[in-house]
Design goal:
Organism: Ilyodon furcidens (goldbreast splitfin)
Structural class: mainly beta
Largest sheet: 5 strands, mixed
Strand order of the largest sheet: 9-10-11-12-16
Strand content: over 45%
Radius of gyration: 29 Å
Pfam families: WD40_MABP1-WDR62_1st, WD40_MABP1-WDR62_2nd
InterPro entries: MABP1 (IPR055292), WD40/YVTN_repeat-like_dom_sf (IPR015943), WD40_MABP1-WDR62_1st (IPR056161), WD40_MABP1-WDR62_2nd (IPR056162), WD40_repeat_dom_sf (IPR036322), WD40_rpt (IPR001680)
Helix content: under 10%
Number of strands: 49
GO molecular function, one term: kinase activity
Keywords: Kinase, Repeat, Transferase, WD repeat
Number of helices: 4
Length: about 650
């Protein structure tokens, strides 16, 4: 028929004009503009190379995984630079004019990236390292960027970034932990394990040949201190521009003269020293136990010791007045200082401690120091997150639907608030309401990776594996918080008093999932599932007595969920045995009993599960990055969605 082509064409045209396609496009545009990173609660700085300050504006930059957080300490406002390569940021430094930020990253074939701070976008990158970058720095004349690889990479590169040429390069033979440029940009100094080296740039010109010249290096004359670990370095400023100041991990502050000779040194009287920052009239040394000591650069004369931060294990909600913090007789151990950076504009000193806390001190008068900003974060990996349910009426602890809970390998449960509250209850953190310390061991609050001169040892690792809270769950009425740790211990806290009301050794291995039954089921049950292949069902109304133990799974159980549908109470569980079990509750003389109604097996590990609002379907996140939808009544798979755009990783939550 002659009209056929026309009708098909017109139908296609009408279809393209149809509102559903336009709406889909609009919807995608809306999503990208809506989903933005608002705030990062955490810091992954492991040394002095991971903290830097804009010398013009006082903006602070530190790494949080593959994100650089740009913090305005006065307004407590964050902006973010997101590393598109998804590699963790290890080192960063502002340009002298504050317009650019250079970052180094970890992982295979890492890049040194240059970012425009105002627009928060990448403007250049250098890929000359193989195994991770440990230090980066801008020269004061803004011409060069120097980057030093980690102890497996061992490369030192000098990059004329405006012309995108590596002008000089060389190798180092030891682990380098610090780098600093001289004031006139003619040389820079690297320090590390038994290593202080001066590198000269006089002959470095961006040549047309594009082959980097060998970088000229001369060792510092260390004398009797040659066996020390030099953890940080800073070249002198102003009248002391000929001198170079270094700090050793054993706690010595050293000065090298213009002939590279060790001129004088002073004992910091501390167990370990890791970081150093310099102004024209003051040297700040970050030491153990929260101590920062200040010295005069002229003659290394001791000036003062700054106030210490909170003691480890302190109750955040109780520190409501500044006098609590500045009380000099603080009992207990404080975290070690691992990074310090000085802001010459506001005359503030920012410190990062090895419990992943951050303080900004006002050091205009070093004998009368004030606190500008502070924040406390988890000191180890975060395992679980739970939002407080929307329950009518306020609880005593000031909890609402804008509060959420996190648990971590540092053996703490932390309660955070989402909205910025003007009347902050405590002075240590604007975001943190309370920390629940699960056992009295404060050692889990310290990050072992933050010690510069220790390699990652096996025994630290094994101790860390056993510590930590693996999963948490808040009861639907908002009264109880259940938590499971990595030894199989179940604990329940009363949220109105924050007291522990139950502690029971529920499993032989780590608890991987906790779930309270919803009010619409008519039951108040708590299900605990573990790596030991068992599910325990407890009665939350009858002081958590055991109702039933289920042992059908043959491997770790990753998720358990309750659902009320077809006037029946169901329990669904899935795990690493690639099975998903559907059970139905039956009333018996002994109480409630769950019996198996369906059992499905898939070809991939099932990591997490969520039940939809109508309780008809369960969505399961799988190792092959797919989301499988099951009908809860029949146990049959209804749909399969691709859960990821890329071809790597697994769908975990």
């Amino acid at each position: 028929m002659p009209g056929d082509g026309f009708t098909i064409r017109s139908r296609i045209r009408n279809l393209l004009r149809s509102p559903s396609i336009k709406n889909k496009k609009k919807c995608e545009e809306n999503l990208t503009s809506k989903v933005t990173l608002e705030k990062v609660l955490g810091i992954t700085n492991s040394g002095n190379t991971g903290l830097t300050c804009d010398p013009r504006s006082g903006l602070l930059a530190y790494p949080a995984g593959c994100v650089v957080v740009l913090l305005n300490p006065k307004k407590n406002r964050q902006h973010h630079i997101i590393n598109t390569s998804r590699k963790a940021i290890t080192a960063l430094s502002f340009s002298p004019d504050g317009k650019y930020l250079v970052t180094g990253e970890s992982g295979h074939l890492p890049a040194v990236r240059l970012w425009d701070v105002a627009e928060r976008r990448q403007v250049a990158e250098l890929q000359k390292h193989k195994y991770g970058v440990s230090c980066v720095a801008f020269s004061p004349n803004n011409k060069f960027i120097v980057s030093v690889g980690n102890q497996h990479d061992m490369m030192v590169n000098v990059w004329a970034w405006k012309k995108d040429v590596v002008v000089a390069a060389n190798k180092v033979s030891s682990k380098v932990t610090g780098v600093s440029f001289s004031e006139d940009s003619s040389y820079f100094v690297t320090v590390g394990n038994r290593h202080v080296r001066f590198w000269y740039l006089d002959h470095c010109k961006a040549s047309k040949t594009r082959t980097p010249m060998p970088l000229l290096g001369r060792s510092g004359l260390l004398g009797e201190l040659r066996n020390n670990f030099f953890s940080d370095v800073s070249c002198g400023r102003g009248s002391k521009s000929d001198s170079t100041f270094c700090i050793t991990s054993s706690g010595l502050l050293c000065e090298f003269n213009s002939k590279r000779m060790l001129d004088k040194w002073v004992d910091l009287r501390t167990g370990v020293a890791q970081s150093l920052s310099l102004s024209e009239d003051m040297i700040f040394c970050g030491c153990a136990d929260g101590t920062v000591r200040t010295f005069s650069p002229v003659d290394l004369h001791f000036v003062s010791t700054l106030p210490r931060p909170h003691p480890l294990g302190s109750d955040v909600s109780a520190v409501t007045e500044a006098s609590h913090l500045f009380n000099t007789k603080t009992e207990g151990r404080c975290p070690d200082v691992i990074a310090v950076t000085y802001d010459p504009v506001n005359r503030w000193l920012s410190c990062v401690y090895n419990d992943h806390s951050l303080y900004v001190w006002d050091v205009r008068e070093v004998h009368r120091v004030g606190k500008v900003n502070s924040a406390l974060f988890h000191a180890a990996s975060v395992w679980d997150l739970e939002v407080f349910p929307d329950v009518p009426g306020r609880l005593a602890a000031g909890l609402s639907s804008s509060t959420f809970f996190t648990c971590s390998a540092d053996s703490t449960i932390r309660i955070w608030r989402m909205e910025d509250s003007t009347q902050s209850q405590n002075i240590l953190s604007n975001d943190l309401l309370k920390i629940i310390y699960i056992d009295g061991n404060t050692g889990t609050l310290l990050d072992p990776e933050c010690n510069v001169n220790t390699e990652k040892s096996g025994d630290v690792h094994t101790a860390e594996i056993k510590a930590g809270i693996r999963t948490i769950c808040v009861s639907p009425d908002g009264k109880h918080l259940a938590s499971g740790d990595r030894n199989g211990m179940l604990r329940v806290h009363d949220l109105s008093s924050m007291e522990q009301i139950l502690k029971v050794e529920a499993h032989d291995a780590e608890i991987l999932c906790l779930e309270y039954s919803k009010p619409e089921t008519g039951l108040k049950l708590l299900a605990t599932a573990s790596r030991d292949r068992l599910i325990h069902v407890l009665d939350a109304d009858d002081s958590y007595s055991l109702v039933q133990t289920l042992g059908e799974h043959s491997s770790s159980i990753t998720a358990v969920r309750f659902a009320a549908n077809d006037n029946k109470v169901r329990m669904i569980s899935c795990g690493a045995d690639k099975s998903i079990y559907f059970r139905t509750a039956h009333k018996t003389d002994r109480g409630t009993e769950f019996r198996r109604s369906h059992h499905m097996v898939r070809k991939t590990t099932l990591y997490d599960m969520s039940v939809d609002a109508t309780c008809k379907y369960a969505a399961v996140g799988c190792q092959d990055r797919c989301i499988r939808i099951f009908n809860i009544s029949s146990g049959k798979q209804r749909k399969l969605y691709k859960g990821s755009l890329s071809e790597d990783g697994s769908l975990l939550r």
